[in-house]
Amino acid sequence: MTAASKSVQYFAIYLLLLGLALIIFPNSMLSVLMMPETNEPWIRVVGVLVFNLGIFYFYMASTNNPLFLTLSVYLRSSVIVWFAVFSLLEWVSPMIILFGVVDLLAAGWTYYLLKAGK
Q1: Rounded Cα distance, 72 and 74, in Å
Q2: Rounded distance, CA 118 to CA 107, Å?
Q3: Distance of CA 102 to the CA centre of its chain
Q4: Which is the most buried residue in 7, 53, 63, 87, by most CB within 10 A?
Q5: Is the alpha carbon torsion for 108, 75, 1, 56 positive or negative?
């Protein structure tokens, strides 16, 4: 497996843990983001989606598929833009941008490794 693929697998582990946290401790996660707690199921639904995306990323990374790896860089880089827009529209706390920063840094790492041929 290439270093770029391994970087995506590490990111997948982050997604798996984040997804589980959103499913098991949704209000704790909302508190960290300075968002109001909720009893509605939407946060757990998001947790399932994040968890499943983590599984997908983990297994797809092991294929060393250059198209998947490149697409993951672009999509992960876009998260910070979406979250910044959501924050500017006051739909969410600006704290959510921190998750976008993690995505951007991880995408940058994968991008660097792809360009270096690793």
Answers
A1: 6
A2: 15
A3: 7
A4: 7
A5: positive
Q: What is the pTM of this model?
A: 0.90
Q: Residue holding tokens 């968890």?
A: 51
Full DSSP string of 58-112: HHHHTTT-HHHHHHHHHHHHHHHHHHHHHHHTTSS-GGGHHHHHHHHHHHHHHHH
CA distance 78 to 64: 22
d(C-alpha 27, C-alpha 37), whole Å: 5
pLDDT digits (tens, 9 = 90+) for 74-118: 999 999 999 999 999 999 889 999 999 999 999 999 999 999 987
